[in-house]
Every structure is written in C-alpha cells, then in structure tokens.
Design goal:
The chain is α+β, with helices and mostly antiparallel strands. The chain has 2 domains: about 120 residues, Creatine Amidinohydrolase, Chain A, domain 1; about 210 residues, Creatine Amidinohydrolase, CATH 3.90.230.10. The protein is about 35% helix and about 25% strand. Helix 4 crosses helix 5 and helix 9 runs antiparallel to helix 10. The relative contact order is 0.11. The structure holds glycine and manganese (II) ion (2 copies).
Length: about 350
C-alpha cells in the first residue's frame, strides 16, 4: 500500500509539464508504471492525460492495483488494445505518445488497427530521464539494498578460498542476500575466478578457486523495488606484484572518477577521467566498457557514464563507477561502487571496502 501519495503526485506533475491538451501518454514499462503509481504488478498499462489518469490491468491484478494505487482510476481489461481504445475514446484523445522501447511491432500494429482515428507517436526515454534524479525515499531504499548485499558478502567472504567453486559461492551469496531480507537479486551474481575474472560479465561455473586467483564478485540486492550494484575483486592466496599493481591502478581510476563527481559535470567527463588514469599507465585498452550507469528501479538506467555523453550529473542522481582492467586469458580486476551525487560531491552507498584485499 502507498504510504504517501505525494511523491507520485510530484512525479506526475513533472511528467505533465508541457503536456498539450487532447494528448495522452501510454506507459507500458512496468517500472515506469510503478514509479508513477506505486502499482507493482508485472503487467498493465497506464494512460496519463493532462488532467486524468487511468491504470489498466487484467483480472489478475485488480485487487492488487486498488490496494497499491488508491485514488487512481483502475480499469479492468480483457484485451489490452480494447482497453486502451476505450479509455482514449472516453477522453477524446487524438494523439497518444507511447514508450517506443516498451511496445513490440506486433502490439503497435494491433494498437493502430484498434485506434484508427488516433495518432500514435513514439516518445523516447521520457520516463527514464525523469527517474534519474532520486528523492530521499528512493535513496534510502538503494542504501538499504546495498547494506543488505554487503552484509551477505561479509558473511560469505570466508568461503572465498581454494577449492570452492564459483557456482557454490554465487548460490551462497544470493541465498544470504535473500535471507537478509532482499526481495531479489539485482542481476545474476557474477563470481569469476582466475582467467574467468578477465571476462567482464562472466557466468559463475564449475571452476574451483585456486591459489593466486583474482576473484571478482559483482552482485546486488533489491529492496523496495530498488537495486544496488557493487563489485569487489579479491586475490586469494599469494598475490603477484602485477596483480597488486593493476589493482592499485584500477582503484586510482575509481577514486579519481568518484572524486570528480559533482552536479554540473558531464557524464562523459567522468568516463574520460577514469580512462585517462589507466592511459597514464598504458593500460586503457584493457578497459572495455563504460565507467558507470544510473541505478534505481532498474539496475541499469540513465544516465550513462560513457565516452562522449553530454548529459550533466545532477544532485540526487545515483550512479555506479566501475572501472576495470581485463587481461584476456589471464585475470581481471573491477572495482565498482554505487554513489549518490550531492552538492558536496559523491557519497558512496555501497559499504564494502575497496582496499586491496588478500584472502
Ligand atoms: N553487474 C552489472 C554491472 O555492474 O553493470
Ligand atoms: Mn555490477
Ligand atoms: Mn554496474
């Protein structure tokens, strides 16, 4: 049940800024529907007009929608297209903006056939951009997700030793996150050891950890619908001088990027700062992905901290900073924190230590 309707009203007001009459926005992305109404069901459609709002759900979700989104008009539909057409007809809607990323070509064709008088216009990422700046409640949820996750990692860290298989570790970490209260995990946990740690998004497999391995742990928990995202890389047994040197370099890139975070700086600039640090050591070609991304109702959402991105960071955004160096076939290191952008700079939400740690 929604404790406080005010955040939803504020979000809708922001969405409606500049909303022309006789237009409606059709929202199909479930996270966006949740963001605007509090309804957490896995299917539905939200139609937003200049001064009206209707949430369309099928019979499975009517009771849930009434409970989670009190005060919002709930419409039960048998066929989604017919439901949308009925609402559009009732409000005399001439043009509907829809989220291009959330409608399949097939559904679009059916919608067009069901609404012959209505113009359908794709709108790109309007809601995702709206979601980028978090309010205090959202920040508290992400912080709690990160706390639950870190507590679980602390409980399984002793398991990171020679002979333990990646898959067992991933399972135990996910179990601990769930037992610690997480509603789910942010994504399939990555435990990547030895040469596998050189794969940025490895899937945990049957490989047993060996002495001298880098072990990359990329994991997160979900709390109140919000995600955390953190990567710790450890060395098991005796580290080589090269492992320690590379770790310290990635840590330097991570720290410099986080140190540069402030409202008004371009996202691409944060990426450039991380990359430049690695370039000073001639290692930039081993950093093969963007420096970070927004985190919230989705684990990956705007803004992207990547080369050339001109969007400016704003206070209240929550983003990851996650530089890495991957030496194919050998090992890799990534260090990732989820941070809040504040007027005073970045505030770290993911509490696990990022100091060079030998287990
Ligand atoms: N685990 C996905 C990411 O760090 O972006
Ligand atoms: Mn991650
Ligand atoms: Mn990430």
């Amino acid at each position: 049940m929604r404790a406080d309707p005010a955040p939803y009203d504020r979000r809708l007001s922001r969405l409606r800024l500049g909303f022309p009459a006789a237009e409606a926005l059709l929202i199909l992305n479930e996270k966006n529907i949740r963001y605007l109404t509090g309804f957490t069901g896995g299917d539905g459609a939200l139609m937003v007009g200049p001064d009206w709002l209707e949430l369309l759900v099928d019979g499975r979700y009517v009771t849930q929608a009434r409970g989670e989104a009190p005060g919002i008009e709930i419409v039960e539909f048998r066929s989604r297209v017919e439901g949308i057409a009925a609402v559009a007809g009732r409000h005399g809607v001439g043009r509907i903006g829809f989220e291009a990323a959330s409608l399949t070509v097939e559904e679009h064709l059916r919608l067009q056939a069901g609404l012959p008088e209505v113009g359908l216009e794709p709108v790109a990422g309007a809601l995702q951009t709206l979601r980028a700046v978090k309010d205090q409640r959202e920040i508290a949820l992400i912080r709690e997700a990160a706390r639950i996750a870190a507590e679980a990692l602390a409980a399984v860290r002793d398991m990171i030793r020679p002979g333990v298989r990646e898959r067992e570790l991933a399972l135990e970490l996910e179990y601990r996150m769930r037992r610690g209260g997480a509603e789910g995990v942010s994504f399939d946990t990555i435990i990547a050891s030895g040469p596998n740690s050189a794969l940025p998004h490895a899937t945990p497999g049957g490989r047993a950890i060996a002495d001298g391995d880098c072990v990359k742990v990329d994991y997160g928990a979900v709390w109140g619908g919000y995600h955390s995202d953190e990567t710790c890389t450890y060395v098991v047994g005796r580290p080589s001088a090269r492992q320690e040197e590379v770790y310290r370099l990635v840590r330097e890139a991570h720290d410099r990027a986080i140190g540069a975070i402030r409202p008004g700086i371009a996202c691409g600039e944060i990426d450039r700062i991380a990359r430049e640090c690695l370039a000073e050591a001639g290692m930039e070609s081993y950093f093969t992905h963007g420096t970070g991304h927004g985190v919230g109702l989705d684990v990956h959402e705007p803004p992207r901290l990547a080369a050339g991105r001109e969007e400016l960071l704003e206070a209240g955004m929550v983003v990851t900073v996650e530089p890495g160096i991957y030496l194919p076939g050998v090992w890799g290191v990534r260090i990732e924190d989820t941070v809040l952008v504040t007027d005073q700079g970045a505030q770290c939400l993911t509490p696990s230590s990022k100091d060079f740690t030998v287990l």
